Predict the structure.
Amino acid sequence: MALTDIKVRSAKPADKEHSLTDGDGMFLLVHPNGSKYWRLRFRFGGKQHLMALGVYPEVSLSDARQKRDEARKLVAAGIDPRQNKRAIKAKQLDDEKTFELVARAWHADNKKWSDSHAERILKNLADNIFPSIGNIHIADLKTRDLLAPIKSVERSGRLEVAKRLKQRVTAIMTYAVQNGLIDYNPAQDMAGAIMPGKVEHRPALALERLHELLGRIDGYKGRQFTQWAINLTLLLFVRSSELRFARWPEIDFKRALWTIPAEREPIPGVKFSERGSKMHTPHLVPLSRQALEIFQKIREVSGRCELVFIGDHSSRKPMSEGTVNKALQTMGYDTKVEVCGHGFRTMACSSLIESGLWSKDAVERQMSHQERNGVRAAYIHKAEHLDERRLMLQWWADYLDVNREKSVSPFDFAKLHTLK
């Protein structure tokens, strides 16, 4: 007798799996754990076969019968229903290989990014690329299709964004080739299509004006905390976010060493507060005697807080991003053309190189720059040059002290340093 909805629903499990027949080869297989599966027996090519029709109750009795009837029609037409089912599934999977889905798979497979960086990459694609080509099948995309949304970003004046998008779209299409989704990467033909952005160097004073700058810093009448931040920025020439988001556990007073981590614990409500070292690897900063003295003074004010450079209105928030530059403006400098906080890095680097005392590797490591030569980077990436950098940072701090009294060139001070 054919099954009814009540019989199917009330079928009880037994010690062993058993089946309830419906008709035309279809039956309900009941497992000892209570699971119920629809099955179909049919003959094809002179042999008996078994085919799954679904799981009850997701597939009802009427649904299972419809699948059975469709399968029997295929058999009558000389088509194996199992192979037909696999072909339909394969086509569905192929139809899902849109650029957006492949891009998200590429994104998920990249484990080297921090969570915040990965989020920015995906948002950039979602804002600028997916609306244009996200729904197009990966194999149907031509170079002109890939380039269109990137050129649109370029025309809006966001040259750096366009450059990064070009790199990421190329990487996504390379991923598609490597995973057998396409045979050729059309993104390769985008080379040279995006105009290189004009490199804008941050303004920095000529070294002859260092004596003048130090005099204005020492005469600054604003917040003492700001003056400390300016002096540390000059002494250590770290990046703004590396300084602003510093935490006290990073400062080792006994070893005179500041370890800037690759990533920090985010501060609720503070944008980019998870940023650590820009190179996404721990950056060691030796502390000169002068830098240590400033940190000790700051500890008397914010030592009980997690943040080193607490803000004006809350100890849970860091000082403002524009604090150093606003102070420089108060001192009379145009931070767009004369000098800005980031420009201290240029001044320090120039002085260290002109002194002739320090190796380029030690200076570059202290600047926390990425080695551009891939082969060379493979050999030096673990070299910290820490002993040399300790001497170098102390030399720089002493050089600043001398320039507080009178203007001295790095080369002349280096000669005095050598004679001692």
Summary: The chain has 18 helices and seven strands. The first strand starts at residue 18 and ends at 23.
